[in-house]
Amino acid sequence: MNLKELYQEIILDHGKNPRNVGKFENFNKDAKGHNPLCGDKVHLFLKLDENKKINDISFEGEGCAISMASASIMTDLMKGKNETEVKEIISKFLDMIKEKDDIKSELLKDDEKMKLMSLGGVKNYPMRVKCATLSWHALTSALEDFQKEVTTE
Question: The pTM is what?
Fold first, then answer.
């Protein structure tokens, strides 16, 4: 299996069987995102502790496989990370998805980097970049207590 096939397999797996789906009780941060061009929607729920560490994170949403896979991968990776780490990973991911070939971060294990890099091919399709980044922008909004729905426009 070549790398491209592996990346496609990761996206399909997370797209068809997304992790961390559903609203949980006692969340203390949330944010909504919407991509009006394709209809993708996401609603994130976070439980931050007093040290701003993500104890739990989940999402509800509907959309294309890339949008749902990205939200699934993101929620998996962010559990247990503190706000500073989350913001660094978001920044590195957005750099990778828009212009870089890979993701470099000491905060991520090799298999976590591979999951994120599986989404990197969307940079060749500008309309799909919005699908892949929607949940990431919603996460930023939740951390910053921005009350307006995030859109890709």
Answer: 0.94
